[in-house]
Design goal:
The chain is an alpha/beta fold and 457 residues long. Helices cover 40% and strands 22% of the residues. The strands form 2 sheets. A 7-stranded mixed β-sheet has the order 1-9-11-10-12-14-13, with helices on both faces. Helix 2 runs antiparallel to helix 3 and helix 8 packs parallel to helix 11.
Amino acid sequence: MKKHLLIALACGAFQFSYAQQKDSAEIRRIANEILSNSNAYEDLRVLTKTVGARLAGSAGMVKAEKWGVAALKAAGADSVYLQECMVPHWIRGAKEQARIISKRRDFVPPLNIAALGNSVGTGAKGVTAAVIEVKSFEELEKRKDEVKGKIVFYNYPFIDTHVKTFHSYGDAVKYRGSGASRAAKYGAVAVVVRSMSHSADNHPHTGSVNYAEDAPKIPAVAIGLKDADRFSQRIGNDPSMQLYLRTNCQKLPDTIGHNVIGYIRGSEFPDEYITVGGHLDSWDLAEGAHDDGAGCVQSIEILRAYKALGIRPKRTLRVVLFANEENGARGAAKYADEAKAKNEKHVFALESDAGGFTPRGFMLEMEPAKRAKVLSWKPLLLPYGLYDFDEEGGGVDVGFLHRALGTPMGELSPDSQRYFDVHHAASDVFEAVNKRELELGAVGMAALLYLVDQYGL
């Protein structure tokens, strides 16, 4: 009996080893194709240099959608189509102004600021007021009686000791998101927020402000880090100081946008779907190279590589270039709503929206048994630098599908050290992306999707 058991175990081990070898060889073939023949970097160059900024509702959005259709067709998609959704239309207007006014009458260079997305403008005359600096919401509460008629400056820095910089962002972003409404409740006339960044430069980083319904809407701007420190020093030693602030933002009526979707039809289970994508929109300050042109071109590259190698997935692989992630996520909501209405079966959804830097692993959000299955594939992914599967979560866009249908989701997790140098800033340009790192991200994503397609979850 013991002898037969040992033989059975040996045969099982041999079969598993053989399956691993087969998968490893196929993943190697995918990696070779992408690393040798990828079109991702060129796709990104065209997107960033010929389309550029592409905020929802803008002319750049329309150009980007046309680019997405052409890129997916060139990659060999079985079919490409547009999924209509209404998107917000916010415009920045003329360049913002911020300058210090003081009885000292010394020359102070203008402060480098950027209006936060969805913010209201100051009006043509601007706003001039004294400034109260706070380091936290707790300090705001303690000093709430001092706020009326003033501009609140939230000077809350990223926590330096977080190795994964997304943890610093997650900690600080509440000041950008809800800082305006919390200050407005106590009578503030505007807010200035320290940019969400570790950077050593002075670029202001924009991003959405989220107004509460029970507070007045007041102008909100971000300030570059060097100027934030200079501004703080001035507040501390100049009691006469006021800030003149002028922004020219407008919120126009919603307009029509589109998710751009291309797919390879499944060979065995065409009515089961695997989604991979990034968001096609970007903030108006920059080319949106890392955020999220990188995720879009990586997703398209997966489809191209599969087609080039003759890989026909068992399940239908959809590449989705989501509309309006930055200031509304209307595209993701539409995609999830339509999937639910059609009672579609979605096996897995993967997003790349954390930059085109060197891939380290994946964030995952799914049932424990399904996570365990993904973790069992780590030996196949480790040769491509993918070792970190500890974080829970997924991208903003695929999160809508996860909540609507319970779809297991994931997000590529690149090295994060440089991401918030460029995130939502003018420095997010094509030149900031490394070709090799971008392609390695596509390799990792293609490998994971291949395994999910082969074995399901």
